[in-house]
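[recover] target loaded
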C-alpha cells in the first residue's frame, strides 16, 4: 500500500498510474521543465497525486494553502507566475478571479484519466527546481525559496542510510505542503516503498483523535514540532502504551526543551528521539542530534551536519570562532536552495560565496541564527540575530507583520516580538504606537460615533443601578451604585450622607430659587434643595432614574409640586428657557461626559439658561493633576507585598491609559472666562468632609459665577507661606485672634488627606525597580511629615469672625491648597463661606481645550483599533502570523543607541483585551466554570461569555486542544475539538455542554461545582454609574 487517507487506499501501482495520467494532462497544458505549478489541494490522496504529477511532468510545485488570505495567495501566484493551478472543485471558487488556468483534479478527472497511464517522458536533471516554498519575508511580502531535486534527494538519502526503513514500517503525513518538512513526510517513505497515512486537518487539531489515528494505523515514525509533542504528552498519560509501535520521534521547527525530551524518553524508553535543524533554504534539514537520556544543557543541541553538508560558525568578519564562542551559523553543501525567486539582491545577501572552499561556485547560506560549537562537536542553537523566529514550527519574519501593521493609517510605529509564556509556549505580541495625527480621525473612527456609543453604555449601567431599589429604607437617600474604587464594596452610608450634606450646603450658599439640575439621578440633591426653591427642573438621560423620582414625588406625603422632570441628554437645552434659572447644578455628572468638548457644549447651554447674577455649580469633579496619585493609591492598596514597584507602576500606567471617565485640570474652569465672558469669577474648592475617601481626596467642586465682575483684591492682604513660616492650625488661630487682619492668605498648605499618596509617588520615583511593595509600605509607615485636613480650616473659621475660602495651590499635583481668611464687616457670623470671590483668578494662557483633560474615548478608540488591526492582519497574513496580544504604547522604548529595547517592552496585560463587544459575565455555573478554564489556558483574568477564543482572545489550535482537554476532564463529556471552532465562545460551548449533559443525565451527569471567580469580579469605581443619554 502506498497512500492511506481515511477510507481511501492506493497501491503503488494505482498511485503511479493516476500521477502519470495527471502529469500527461499537465504537459498538454504546457507544463515542462521548471514550469511553476500551483497546488491548492487539501490533505488527501489527491494531494499526493498532484505533487507527483507536477514533478513527473518536469515542473516545480508551488504550495498554495487554501487557509491563507486571498491577498497573500494572489501575491504568491503573481510573484511565481504560475502557469496553472491544481485544485479541487470545492476550492476552485477561491481562484475564480486569479486569472490563472485551473485544473480541478476531482471535477476534471474524467477528462484527465483519458491520458496514458505510462510513465511520461521528462528531461529533468538534479539541478532543476522541484518546488518553490514561500516563507515569511521581512519586507512585508513572503519570499519564495527555490528548492532543487538534488537538495531534496540528498536529505532523503541521508535519512534512508542513517535510519533505514524496515519493511513493516508505516509513516504519516501531517504537515502542510507550505512547509518544507512535508517534503520528507511525503516522498521519504514513498520512494522507499513504505506505506504513508495522510492525516486530516481535523484530526491534527484534536490530540485525542491524532493519538487514536497514530495508534490505530500503527505509525512507526512521526515528524512534529516540540509544542505539539508537549500537547500530546499532556493529553495522554498512557502515550507509550497507546503508541508502542511509534519508534522514531523526530522533532524540528523549534527548539526542543530538555525537560520535554526527558519526559518523552522516561515515558517511552527504547524509542529514538531525533532533533533536526534546518529551513526551506537547506531542503528542510542540515543537522541532527540523536537525543540521549542524560542531556544536561537545558536545550537539546541541533547536533552535527547531515551527509554532504557543512556547518560553520563565524564572527562578523566571516572568520571561524573558537569552540564555545557564539557566532552566526553558516550552511554549505548539497542541500542548499538555488536562492529566492525574483529576489536577486536578497539571494546575494543570504547565499554568499564560500570563503573556505577551493571549489569554484561554492556557496554558504547565512542562516541568521546564533550558535556555538560544544566541546563534543555538537552545535548548540542560541537564537536569532534578526527578527526571524520559529513558532510552533512556522517560520516567521517579525518584520513582515510589522510592515503590515505600519501600513495602517492609525499606526505610527509597530514592533512584534515572540514572548515566552509561563507554560513554556511562545506567542506573538504586537506593540503599537498610535499615530497622533489619526488618533480619532473621522476617516478612521469618528469621535462623534465613539461619543454616541459611550453615552448609551453609561445609560445602561445607570438604568440597571436604578432598578435595584427594592431594599431602600429612605427613598430620598438612594446611594446604590456608589462603590469604593479600592474594594468594590459600597461606600459607608455615614460617609455618603456627609458627602450629600456638604454638597447641598455648598449649593444652598448661593440661595437658589429657580434651579436646573442636569443629571438629577435618584434625587440625592433634589429632595434636599427643591423644598427651598420656587421652581426646580431635573433632567436625566436615564428613564429608570426619572421613573424612580416620579414615584417618589407622587407618593404619600410628597410636597414638591414645583418639581418638574424631563428626560434629556446633558447637552440638550431645547425647550429650556434662556436666562431663567439662577442656579444650574451638574453634580457628579461631568466625569461621565465623553469629551471635554461635550462638557463645553453643556456649559454653553448652562450659561445661556442662567440669568445674570446666577451661578453654575459643578460638583464632584475628578482632578487630572491627582490622577496618578489616585491610581497609585488604588493599586498600592490592592497589590501583594511581593510585587515589585516596576510592576506596580505598570499597573498604574495601564489604569491611567484605560481611564474611561473625564478627568479635568482645575485650570480648565479658569480658562472658561476666555470663551464665556459672562463668567465673572470661578470658585474652585476641595471637597468638604471629615472622612478620607476617594470623594474627598481626589475631587473638587467648581462654581461659575455669572454677572458683573467683582474685585477679589480690594482689601489689603497679608500673605504667609505655610512651610516657610512653620505654621500649625493652633499657630494660625493665634495669628487671627491676636493680629485681627482684614484678610490673611496662607499658601502651600500640606494636605493631610493626600500626604501618603503624594509621598508614594516620590518614593516610587526614587526607589530601584526591584524594590518590593512590602519595602514601599514600610517606608510609608515611617513618614513623619504632618499635614492639615482642609476640614480643620473650615472648622477653625466657625467660631472666628472670618469667612474662609480654599483653593488648590498653583502646583495642584501635590494636593496642597491655599487659604484666604476675610474678616466679616460686623461681628455677626453665619458660618457660611462667602460667595464673593476670595482669590483673584490666575492669569489664563490660551491653549487647546483637550490639554485640560484626559481622553475617555481613548480606550474606546483603542478597543476599536485593535480589532481593526487584527482583521487587517487576518486578511493579509496566515493565521499563525497574527499576534495573540496587542499592547498599545505611548512610545516604543529605545536603547541608548536608539534601537528598540525589546527587553523593556511590557508583558501583555492579563486582563481582558480591548474588544468591540462589551464584557458579559457568566450567567450560570457552567459558564462560570468555563470562564475559569478559559482564563487559566489563555492567561487572561476576565473573559466575557461572547468573546471569541480565536479572533479576539488570541487563542490558537494548540491552546484549543488544551482547552478542550480541560473541559472534557471537568465536565466528563465527550467534546470534539470542532465544537470549539464552530462555537468559539463560552456561551456557545456552555449550550453544547448543557445539551450533552441533559442527554446523559441518567447515567453520567454529575453536578457542576461553582468555581471561584475572585479574579473575575467586576469592580465598579467609586462613583454613581450615571448615564448621559
Amino acid at each position: 500500500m502506498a497512500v492511506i487517507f481515511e477510507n481511501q487506499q492506493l497501491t503503488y501501482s494505482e498511485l503511479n498510474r493516476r500521477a502519470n495520467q495527471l502529469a500527461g494532462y499537465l504537459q498538454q497544458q504546457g507544463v515542462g521543465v521548471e514550469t511553476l505549478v500551483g497546488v491548492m489541494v487539501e490533505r488527501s490522496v489527491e494531494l499526493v497525486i498532484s505533487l507527483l504529477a507536477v514533478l513527473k511532468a518536469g515542473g516545480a510545485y508551488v504550495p498554495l494553502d487554501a487557509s491563507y488570505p486571498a491577498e497573500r495567495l494572489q501575491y504568491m501566484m503573481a510573484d511565481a507566475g504560475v502557469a496553472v493551478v491544481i485544485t479541487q472543485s470545492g476550492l476552485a471558487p477561491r481562484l475564480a478571479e486569479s486569472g490563472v488556468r485551473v485544473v480541478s483534479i476531482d471535477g476534471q478527472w474524467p477528462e484527465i484519466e483519458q491520458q496514458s497511464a505510462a510513465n511520461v517522458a521528462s528531461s529533468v536533471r538534479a539541478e532543476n527546481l522541484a518546488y518553490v516554498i514561500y516563507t515569511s519575508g521581512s519586507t512585508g511580502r513572503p519570499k519564495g525559496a527555490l528548492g532543487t531535486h538534488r537538495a531534496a534527494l540528498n536529505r532523503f538519502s541521508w535519512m534512508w542510510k542513517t535510519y533505514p526503513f524496515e519493511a513493516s514500517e508505516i509513516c504519516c503525513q501531517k504537515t502542510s505542503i507550505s512547509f518544507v518538512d512535508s517534503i520528507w513526510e511525503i516522498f521519504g517513505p514513498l520512494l522507499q516503498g513504505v506505506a504513508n497515512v495522510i492525516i486530516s486537518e481535523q484530526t491534527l487539531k484534536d490530540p485525542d483523535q491524532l493519538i487514536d489515528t497514530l495508534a490505530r494505523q500503527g505509525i512507526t515514525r512521526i515528524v512534529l514540532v516540540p509544542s505539539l509533542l508537549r500537547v500530546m504528552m499532556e493529553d495522554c498519560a498512557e502515550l507509550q502504551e497507546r503508541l508502542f509501535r511509534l519508534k522514531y520521534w523526530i522533532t524540528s521547527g523549534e527548539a526542543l526543551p530538555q525537560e520535554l525530551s526527558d519526559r518523552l524518553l522516561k515515558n517511552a524508553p527504547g524509542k529514538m528521539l531525533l532533533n533536526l535543524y534546518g529551513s526551506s533554504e537547506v531542503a528542510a534539514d542540515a543537522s541532527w542530534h540523536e537525543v540521549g537520556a542524560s542531556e544536561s544543557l537545558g536545550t537539546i543541541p541541533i547536533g552535527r551536519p547531515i551527509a554532504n553538508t557543512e556547518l560553520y560558525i563565524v564572527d562578523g568578519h566571516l572568520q571561524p570562532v573558537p569552540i564555545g564562542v557564539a557566532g552566526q551559523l553558516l550552511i554549505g553543501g548539497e542541500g542548499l536552495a538555488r536562492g529566492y525567486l525574483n529576489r536577486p539582491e536578497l539571494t546575494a545577501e543570504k547565499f554568499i560565496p564560500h570563503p573556505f572552499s577551493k571549489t569554484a561556485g561554492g556557496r554558504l547560506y547565512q542562516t541568521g541564527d546564533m550558535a556555538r560549537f560544544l566541546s563534543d562537536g555538537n552545535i548548540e542553537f542560541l537564537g536569532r540575530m534578526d527578527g526571524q523566529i520559529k513558532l510552533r514550527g512556522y517560520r516567521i519574519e517579525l518584520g513582515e507583520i510589522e510592515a503590515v501593521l505600519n501600513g495602517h493609517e492609525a499606526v505610527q510605529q509597530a514592533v512584534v516580538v515572540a514572548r515566552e509564556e509561563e507554560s513554556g509556549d511562545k506567542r506573538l505580541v504586537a506593540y503599537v504606537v498610535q499615530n497622533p495625527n489619526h488618533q480619532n480621525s473621522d476617516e478612521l473612527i469618528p469621535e462623534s460615533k465613539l461619543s454616541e456609543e459611550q453615552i448609551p453604555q453609561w445609560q445602561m449601567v445607570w438604568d440597571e443601578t436604578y432598578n435595584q431599589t427594592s431594599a431602600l429604607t429612605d427613598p430620598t437617600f438612594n446611594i446604590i451604585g456608589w462603590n469604593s474604587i479600592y474594594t468594590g464594596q459600597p461606600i459607608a452610608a455615614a460617609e455618603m450622607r456627609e458627602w450629600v450634606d456638604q454638597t447641598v450646603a455648598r449649593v444652598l450658599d448661593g440661595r437658589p430659587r429657580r434651579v436646573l439640575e442636569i443629571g438629577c439621578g435618584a434625587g440625592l440633591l433634589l429632595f434636599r434643595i427643591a423644598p427651598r426653591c420656587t421652581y426646580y427642573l431635573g433632567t436625566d438621560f436615564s428613564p429608570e432614574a426619572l421613573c424612580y423620582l416620579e414615584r417618589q414625588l407622587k407618593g404619600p406625603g410628597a410636597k414638591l409640586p414645583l418639581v418638574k422632570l424631563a428626560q434629556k441628554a446633558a447637552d440638550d437645552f431645547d425647550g429650556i428657557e434662556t436666562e431663567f434659572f439662577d442656579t444650574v447644578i451638574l453634580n457628579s455628572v461631568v466625569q461621565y461626559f465623553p469629551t471635554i468638548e461635550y462638557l463645553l457644549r453643556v456649559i454653553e447651554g448652562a450659561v445661556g439658561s442662567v440669568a445674570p447674577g446666577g451661578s453654575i455649580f459643578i460638583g464632584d469633579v475628578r482632578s487630572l493633576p491627582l490622577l496618578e496619585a489616585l491610581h497609585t493609591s488604588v493599586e498600592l492598596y490592592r497589590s501583594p507585598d511581593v510585587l515589585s514597584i516596576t510592576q506596580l507602576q505598570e499597573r498604574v500606567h495601564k489604569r491611567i491609559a484605560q481611564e474611561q471617565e473625564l478627568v479635568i485640570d482645575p485650570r480648565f474652569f479658569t480658562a472658561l472666562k476666555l470663551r464665556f465672558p459672562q463668567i465673572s469669577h470661578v470658585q474652585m474648592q476641595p471637597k468638604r468632609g471629615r472622612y478620607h475617601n476617594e470623594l474627598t481626596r481626589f475631587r473638587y467642586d467648581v462654581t461659575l459665577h455669572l454677572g458683573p465682575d467683582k474685585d477679589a483684591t480690594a482689601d489689603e492682604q497679608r500673605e504667609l507661606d505655610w512651610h516657610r513660616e512653620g505654621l500649625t492650625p493652633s499657630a494660625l488661630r493665634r495669628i487671627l485672634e491676636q493680629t485681627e487682619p482684614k484678610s490673611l492668605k496662607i499658601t502651600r498648605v500640606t494636605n493631610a488627606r493626600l500626604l501618603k499618596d503624594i509621598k508614594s509617588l516620590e518614593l516610587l520615583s526614587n526607589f530601584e525597580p526591584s524594590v518590593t511593595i512590602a519595602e514601599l509600605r514600610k517606608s510609608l509607615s515611617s513618614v513623619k511629615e504632618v499635614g492639615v485636613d482642609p476640614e480643620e480650616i473650615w472648622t477653625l473659621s466657625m467660631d472666628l469672625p472670618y469667612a474662609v475660602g480654599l483653593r488648590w495651590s498653583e502646583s495642584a499635583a501635590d494636593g496642597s491648597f491655599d487659604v484666604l481668611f476675610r474678616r466679616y464687616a460686623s461681628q455677626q457670623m453665619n458660618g457660611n463661606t462667602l460667595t464673593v470671590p476670595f482669590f483673584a483668578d490666575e492669569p489664563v494662557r490660551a491653549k487647546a481645550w483637550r490639554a485640560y483633560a484626559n481622553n475617555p474615548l481613548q480606550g474606546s478608540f483603542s478597543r476599536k483599533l485593535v480589532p481593526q488591526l487584527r482583521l487587517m492582519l487576518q486578511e493579509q497574513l496566515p493565521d499563525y502570523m497574527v499576534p495573540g496580544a496587542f499592547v498599545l504604547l505611548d512610545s516604543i522604548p529605545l536603547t541608548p543607541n536608539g534601537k528598540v529595547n525589546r527587553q523593556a517592552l511590557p508583558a501583555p496585560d492579563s486582563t481582558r483585551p480591548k474588544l468591540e463587544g462589551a464584557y458579559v459575565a457568566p450567567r450560570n455555573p457552567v459558564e462560570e466554570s468555563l470562564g475559569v478554564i478559559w482564563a487559566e489556558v489563555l492567561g487572561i483574568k476576565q473573559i466575557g461569555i461572547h468573546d471569541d477564543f480565536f479572533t479576539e482572545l488570541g487563542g490558537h489550535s494548540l491552546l484549543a486542544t488544551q482547552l478542550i482537554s480541560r473541559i472534557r476532564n471537568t465536565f466528563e463529556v465527550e467534546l470534539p475539538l470542532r465544537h470549539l471552532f464552530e462555537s468559539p465562545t463560552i456561551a456557545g460551548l456552555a449550550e453544547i455542554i448543557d445539551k450533552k449533559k441533559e442527554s446523559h443525565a441518567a447515567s453520567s451527569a454529575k453536578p457542576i461545582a461553582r468555581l471561584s471567580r475572585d479574579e473575575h469580579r467586576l469592580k465598579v469605581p467609586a462613583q454613581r454609574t450615571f448615564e448621559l443619554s
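[recover] notes: The first strand starts at residue 3 and ends at 5.
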